[in-house]
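Hey L., structure's done. Input below.
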Amino acid sequence: MANYAKDSAGIVRAARAGDYKVGIILGSGLGSLATEIDDAVRIPYAQLAGFPVSSVTAHASELVAGMLEGVPVVILSGRAHYYESGNPSIMRTPMETLKELGCEIIVATNAAGSLREQIAPGSAMLINDHINWSGLNPLIGEEDESRFLDMSKAYDPALREQIKAAAKQEGIELPEGVYMWFSGPSFETPAEIRMSQVLGADAVGMSTVPEVILARFLGMRVAAFSTITNMGAGLQAHDLSHDETKEMAPKGAAKIKAILKTFLRNLDK
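Output:
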């Protein structure tokens, strides 16, 4: 494991001792969850070795460690995206740091565009698989056979069942679907959206897949959500914009927060 991760984990433990169980990656609209952590320490990415600082306005670029619903968690409040640097492994050090801090489970979240009428803006979607349309991979350059990673159960089936049970407990509808990763930063064209539907995608976005690959490579279990902010290009009357993403993200994010907190409360039961 890279020295950057050991150094960064050391900085976190110096501020708050102990091991952690769950790492949570907050996408657009979910930043407020970081304010609900008990006994929290907050460390800007700029103070952590090898951590990238996001240029996206909705991402705080801050690590928060503490307790959430009685579970020791590390939150990555914001992520760096491939489209910011052209580096698909830009989140490798943060993911290695979560592993170094003891995290066994990763919960990733993102904002996404829906391809299905039944999954409308303001919804939350539980990701059950992905399509890596970008063709990029954070494991390119690995020099041993560990790079041939089995992704057949990338989104842990047992975790998904626990999350669905938490959603039912909260009375929140939680459709499952396939997330398709485009590199961004431009939004998809109507033709690309039609192609994505034909290929079996339910939502499209510009993140998450690299972190999921890295988490599985590092031996952590993964669950992931999309908060649906818009319909894909050609499926709604108005133009796509990042302002719409920022406006709509909190609506689905509120559902994800409620589900996630119940999931954590039930985790060890």
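The radius of gyration is 17 Å. The longest helix spans residues 242-265.

-- N.
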